[in-house]
Structures are given as C-alpha cells and as structure tokens.
Amino acid sequence: MSAFLLGTAIFILATVAVALARILRGPADADRMMAAQLLGTGGVAALLIVGVVIGEDSVLNVALTIALLAAFASVTFFKVTTGGASGEADEEGQP
Predict the structure, then answer these.
(1) Domain definitions of the chain by residue range
(2) Could you tell me the pTM of the whole model?
C-alpha cells in the first residue's frame, strides 16, 4: 500500500512540474497566480501522502501550514489586483 501511495505522490509532483511551466509563460498575472495555487495544492497533497506513508506528524503540520499560507496569498493577490476594494470607508470617511 505504501508503494502505491508513494507512486501517487510522485505522479502529483509530476503534474505540479507541468504547472511550473505555466507559471513561467502565463500571459496574465491571474494565470500565474492560479498556477502558483495549483503548485501549492499539489505540494500539500504530496506532503500529506508522504506524511501518512512515513507516519511522521510533523510533515502533516508543514503541509497544513503551507495550505494556510496559500489561502493568505490568494486573498492578498485579490486585494492587490482590485486596488484593495473591500467596501470599507477610507481615512476621509468616504465609502
């Protein structure tokens, strides 16, 4: 069973390598961000599988931390590309 899981992790990492090519040649920033999110998701999936195979809890903690950071990266990208529009009032009280 562990050989199957390791094979699955290697397959996931191979598909993530294809996403790296997309990051480099993406025509728009949004395309690059989506490819980076795919890279993060694939990396987290591979780490979770490897963590289960080797039975090491610290690998699972690292994978979950990377997933949390990826969520923050998406929110930050959205804020930067939309000009920080959040519906809140600015310093002068204007919405």
Answers:
(1) 2-80
(2) 0.70
